[in-house]
Design brief:
disordered C terminus, disordered N terminus, 14 helices, 58% helix, 324 residues, mainly alpha
């Protein structure tokens, strides 16, 4: 986090892509992080309740749809983090600028290389088909990020707040769900959800942050937001843009349940095809329980019967012949 007093933040208008309005009743004297949490409560809830989000959290998306979403996230983060890099000295962005800790683009690229089973995943037919005619929701999201990065980069803080803090919170629930649903083991395909430790050097502590450390990272991030933006007009602009960020994310989730784009089939390479076994068919299990035993087992069962039959026969003969 930077030290000293930040310069006043001036937000430029972006008429080509206006932010979502916020309530005039908001208490703009609140710290920036608290204000954004209150101002976006309804939009946050709407995003979580969308059909696509529920399918993702429940691990119920088709594998191809999950990969589609991951590619879209890569494009979103690539645009967001390019803007943050280019404007890292901006007073509103500097206190929370820590790409070694937060940047997700590289992790998403690594995940896609695993999910698509090729290091050149951008050349994969599935990727090329998707990005040659991207969903309108993706285009709207990346266009918005590009617009504000050029005209009012301070507003990128709202998008970073929505994405990064979401990854550090609900993203950890999604990680467990998708790992189980798609057969992702050993952390491969899941780097997007992993964070290093606060204050560590680039690459140091990768994947080591537990829930306690992630909570500390979120607290650090909120403190940086409060430090970087203090003017009420700037806070109001950030609150409006944070609602826009949630709306764009909700639209991205909605695209997961919309009519599927024309994409090549993409089977999951990590889950074996179900086999016809006793465990999967109760009739097979029943038949195996009652299958004939080995010949020696039958003989072992017959010996007592044969001996008993011989004794009974001998008794009958003895009576017939008057032996007793």
């Amino acid at each position: 986090m930077s030290s000293g007093t930040s310069s006043p933040v001036t937000f430029l208008p972006t008429p080509s892509a206006p932010s979502t309005p916020v309530s005039p009743d908001l208490d703009l004297s609140l710290p920036t992080s608290a204000l954004l949490r209150i101002a976006t409560a309804a939009a946050h809830s709407n995003a979580e309740e969308s059909g696509g989000a529920k399918l993702l959290v429940g691990g119920q998306l088709e594998y191809a749809r999950f990969v589609q979403f991951t590619i879209c996230l890569h494009e979103v983060y690539s645009e967001l983090e390019r803007g943050l890099d280019e404007n890292s000295a901006n007073p509103a962005l500097a206190p929370t600028y820590n790409p070694a800790l937060l940047a997700r683009t590289s992790a998403l690229s690594s995940d896609l290389a695993h999910l698509l089973q090729t290091p050149t995943w951008r050349k994969h037919p599935f990727t090329q088909a998707l990005l040659s005619s991207p969903p309108a929701t993706l285009t709207a999201y990346t266009s918005r990020l590009r617009t504000i990065a050029a005209s009012s980069p301070e507003l990128l803080l709202s998008h970073a707040y929505v994405r990064y803090l979401g990854d550090l919170s609900g993203g950890q629930v999604i990680k467990r769900s998708v790992a189980k649903a798609y057969g992702l083991s050993g952390g491969e395909g899941l780097e997007f959800f992993e964070f290093g430790t606060l204050g560590g050097a680039k690459g140091k502590g990768k994947g080591e942050a537990g829930l306690g450390e992630m909570k500390r990272i979120k607290e650090w991030y909120r403190d940086g937001m409060d430090e970087g933006v203090k003017e009420e007009k700037a806070k109001a602009a950030l609150a409006a843009e944070a609602n826009t960020a949630f709306r764009l994310n909700s639209s991205l989730f909605a695209s997961l349940t919309a009519s599927a784009p024309s994409l090549p089939p993409l089977p999951n390479p990590f889950l074996a095809a179900p086999s016809f076994t006793a465990s999967s068919n109760p009739w097979v299990a029943l038949a195996q329980q009652h299958k004939p035993k080995e010949p020696r087992d039958w003989l072992a069962l017959l010996w007592p019967f044969l001996i008993g039959l011989g004794v009974a026969h001998a008794v009958v003969l003895a009576k017939v012949w008057g032996w007793f």
